[in-house]
Design goal:
This protein is α+β, with helices and mostly antiparallel strands. 19% of the residues lie in helices and 29% in strands.
């Protein structure tokens, strides 16, 4: 309920508009995404570089979790030499709580501000806060992290980008970005055309994609998995170098759900799809001639021209992505024995960007994954209720940043923007005027609703609309953002995505 004096509530109402105006003046924040640039740490050539408690890390993005999760150094202490390097490569990077600086504070789980643990061996799981320094960009104190161990897991150290991401919420709470909207130009890890990428929070870079947008609904439940970016595949087509095409769908009328997951690079398909892929590529079984996983003899290359992924967007229209040969196939690659960098390890073999599944749903079925190779050709925009894909522009050009609050982009030329250019000044002035008017009329209204003899506040008149900011926060936030941007915005806070693995 509203408390006396009532004009304080109107004053708060006015200030909330001013806060929104402050947010509208903020610009998107960009974080370099490293794919091939050498860094001076083991396996430090993929992801976002950050110092956590003075420990250098490169973190991938994980759309199946919300927390910043780091592999404990103890995971790799039992092995040495090349096995240690490969272990670190598998984990992404590792965190050593014993050498971390004094900013690391271990907290009981019931006092930890993160979103939840991973249900792993509690003796190797540490919930903590620490200083996270994205060098040259921003630094956070008391940033929530979870350090955990699981040698049998293929999960990497990563930043959770689920619908309740701690990373995105921290940026928003510190008023350093205009919104929790994020977009990713993944770049490429290909052998012949590598390119670093960039993560933007609070907007998009229009120089990095070409329209139209294809929109999808976030947090769908096609798969019994916490993946926030689920899509339906209408077909996946393998094309030979001679042009022969083979569908990997056993049933041409079926649709197959998949998860967009930047943490993984290669494609993962269902068991039925992988069986067809192995048949069409004349896959050599792992127990024959040391060809394992994604590795083939070089004479099979003509069977791997390119791969076409056809998704169904929200308009029930097909959205087609062609993965070119240079992204789809390379020489055999892996970590080197010295620094763990991702290099060619055997140029007599080839390696294809299709591999076994590492994620499973609650029923034990493989979750098909569209990973970094898929995103090499697509620009990804993620908002609270929707996410969108557009063709990635792989030709470097001058940045053209656009602030995005939270709205689904049109398929054509227009994308809803959050108070741009001259509109910023108008929004700020409007906020001050509205706040002043609210205070003035609030006082006038207060005096008209008080009993002259006692000065006590009486009940609100029937039909008077009063926002209870605790109960109506979401509606109020949407209203304030709509006024700030000058456009109609529908906003819904995303639901919690559990961070357990399936």
């Amino acid at each position: 309920m509203l408390t006396s004096p009532l004009y304080h509530q109107f004053f708060v109402f006015g200030l909330l508009f001013l806060v929104t105006d402050v947010e509208a003046t903020l610009v998107p924040m960009s974080f370099p995404w490293t794919n091939y640039t050498a860094l001076n740490i083991v396996s430090g050539n993929r992801g976002l570089f950050v110092n956590i408690a003075n420990e250098p890390m490169t973190l991938r993005l994980d759309t199946m979790s919300n927390d910043v999760h780091l592999h404990n150094k103890g995971d790799c202490d039992s092995v040495s030499g090349i096995d240690h390097v490969r272990c670190v490569g598998l984990m992404g990077t590792i965190f050593d709580p014993q050498t971390a600086d004094s900013s690391l504070h271990v907290l009981p789980k019931d006092q930890w501000p993160g979103n939840g643990s991973y249900g792993l061996d509690s003796s190797h799981e540490i919930t903590a806060v620490a200083t996270a320094n994205f060098t040259g960009i921003t630094a956070f104190q008391d940033f929530p992290i979870v350090v955990w161990s699981n040698r049998g897991s293929t999960n990497r150290s990563a930043i959770g980008m689920g619908s309740s991401s701690v990373f995105l919420q921290s940026l928003k709470d510190k008023l350093v970005v205009p919104s929790k909207v994020w977009s990713l130009f993944f770049g490429s890890r290909s052998q012949y055309k590598p390119m670093d990428g960039v993560l933007h929070v609070g907007g998009v870079d229009e120089s990095q994609f070409t329209k139209p947008w294809n929109n999808f609904t976030s947090s769908q439940a096609y798969i019994k998995s916490p993946c926030a970016l689920q899509v339906l595949m209408e077909d996946v087509i393998l094309t030979y170098e001679n042009g022969t095409r083979h569908s990997l769908f056993p049933d041409p009328a079926a649709v197959v759900p998949a998860c967009i997951q930047p943490e993984q690079s290669h494609f993962t398909f269902s068991k039925e799809m992988l069986k067809l892929f192995n048949m069409y590529t004349e896959y050599v079984a792992p127990n024959e001639m040391n060809y394992t996983g994604q590795v083939y003899p070089k004479d099979k290359r003509p069977l791997m021209g390119n791969l076409t992924i056809i998704l169904r967007n929200n308009d029930y229209e097909p959205y087609e992505t062609v993965i070119p040969n240079y992204e789809f196939v390379s020489d055999e690659r892996g970590q080197d024995s010295v620094e763990g960098r991702y290099v060619v390890t055997n140029d007599s073999n080839i390696q294809v960007a299709v591999g076994p599944g590492n994620w499973f749903d609650r029923n034990g079925n493989v979750v098909p994954i569209l990973g970094g190779v898929f995103l090499s050709q697509n620009y990804l925009l993620v908002q609270s209720k929707t996410f969108s894909l557009a063709r990635a522009n792989l030709v470097k050009s001058d940045p053209k940043m656009i602030t995005v609050l939270d709205s689904t982009p049109d398929r054509g030329d227009k994308i809803t923007r959050g108070a741009l250019a001259g509109g910023l000044v108008g929004a700020i002035i409007f906020g001050f005027v509205l706040g002043a008017v609210a205070i003035y009329y609030g006082r006038q209204w207060l005096s008209s609703t008080q009993t002259p003899q006692t000065g006590e506040t009486v009940s609100v008149r029937p039909g008077t609309a009063i926002l209870d900011w605790e109960r109506q926060e979401l509606q109020g936030d949407a209203l304030r953002k709509s006024i700030a941007s000058g456009e109609s915005i529908q906003r819904m806070e995303p639901g919690h995505v559990t961070s357990s693995r399936y």
